[in-house]
Amino acid sequence: MTKPVRDRLSGIFRAALDASDPARLVRVSLRPGPEGLALACGGKTASAQWTLTRSIRLVGGGKAGRTMGEGILSAIGDRVASGVVAVPAGSGGTSGPVRFIEAGHPVPDRGSLYAAREILSLLAESGKDDLVIALISGGGSAMISAPVEGVSPDEKAALSGLLMRAGADIVSLNTVRKHLSLVKGGRAALAANPARVWTLLLSDVPGDDPSVIASGPFSPDPTTCADAMGVLSRLGILNEAPRSAIRHLQAGMAGRERETPKPGNPVFKPVTCAVIGSNRTAVYGAADAAKAGGLAPVRLLPGFLSGEARECARSFVSEMRREASALSRGRTGVLVAGGETAVTVKGAGRGGRNQEFALAAAIELSGLKGMAVLCAGTDGVDGPTDAAGAVADGSTCDRAMEMGLSPRSSLENNDAYSFFRTLGDLVVTGPTGTNVADIAVGIVSNA
């Protein structure tokens, strides 16, 4: 891939990250004034008068926890009395009255349990004259994790890993996790009641459903223990799941364990949920950058990234070919897709869904000129690797074979990371402080 093309792809992706900056999105949504604080975002509004608010408490967690928290503190730091936010490794510490506790992802760890317990303790101290501002972003399911009685943290972590290896999508994964948690599925709202709660959500899930984002700690849960058992059965892992988890779900189905609070429960009356940013925010940011760079036409495919990564990549390349056939001579167009794919791991290699997408796209693009693709996670982390994703074009497979690499063998072994690392075509950003799922950018030229 030529440097100008790679730079174009990288610039468009960087613009998507800038558009999704959590601190900026928080500041846009919260408006402090002399009389009080107002929340306005996505049609949701709420207000709190300073004189009628005893204290403001900050809680939450997710991959954007630190940047969202700093956004709040920059806006109303002198008004925040206390706070606990679960954040990724390397971003912990204290800022004013707020403790940022490092917690594990994608598998919960001791920090996840500690953060959950501290958050529940802070919520339990809140009264009806207090305002709780909850900052929730993708990754929060693992990073705020307190299992129900009878299920150990290690057993819950093992089940999370089992679900991910089986290719569970985010909705299925969170359906199970909600019913094994003291925090998720609206149970944090139970702990906070009767305090007012403003939940600011940075969405990484399709449809931006608050009950799915980080497993909906402050949102009513429409799913049941029976639904969670159905997920385990459908994925064929019922017999591999920890027995303690199965016993709890079965007890919930039989009415011996309390279900998560459902829609219509009065506990949610003082709760306002506002989605302040989502994958569309990133998609539109990328599109604006492409247009500003003189690329046209720009075609948007929000929600396109779904299902198996390699199958989605083949469909994306088909869209790129269709776009190329419609371009006038000398024009360069761009496709921007958003969403989140999944990988059913069968090989022994390393990688993530975005790298797997890029490798499958490279095979489809092999020998074609004028086409290039970047696929990366907005959080800067793709699977258990240090890369966000990768770039590929029509020369990728030829260059790989010259270096003794087999593209198809690498794909079948789920070893996209080694493949692209050898080629020097990984996208490495480090943790970005945001998390609005994934972006794929395709550049198509008719030179």
Into which percent range does the helicity of residues fall? 25-40%
Strand content: 15-25%
Q: What is the average per-residue confidence, as pLDDT, rounded to a whole number?
A: 95
- Class from helix and strand fractions: alpha/beta
Structural shape = globular
Weakly predicted, low-confidence segments: none
Termini Cα gap: 16 Å
CATH topology tier name of the largest domain: Rossmann fold
Description:
The chain is α/β, with parallel strands linked by helices. The protein folds into two domains: 3-12 and 280-445, glycerate kinase, domain 1; 22-278, Rossmann fold (3-Layer(aba) Sandwich), CATH 3.40.50. The chain has 16 helices and 16 strands. The chain has helices at 3-19, 22-29, 65-76, 110-124, 140-143, 153-165, 170-178, 187-192, 225-234, 243-253, 279-292, 309-326, 353-365, 396-402, 407-412, 416-423, and strands at residues 30-32, 36-41, 44-49, 55-61, 80-87, 93-95, 98-102, 130-137, 196-202, 271-277, 298-305, 332-339, 371-377, 389-393, 426-427, 438-445. It has a seven-stranded mixed beta sheet with strand order 6-7-5-4-8-9-10, sandwiched between helices. The protein has a six-stranded mixed beta sheet with strand order 11-12-16-13-14-15, sandwiched between helices. The protein has a three-stranded antiparallel beta sheet with strand order 1-2-3. Helix 1 packs across helix 11 (279-292). The model has no long low-confidence stretch (mean pLDDT 95).
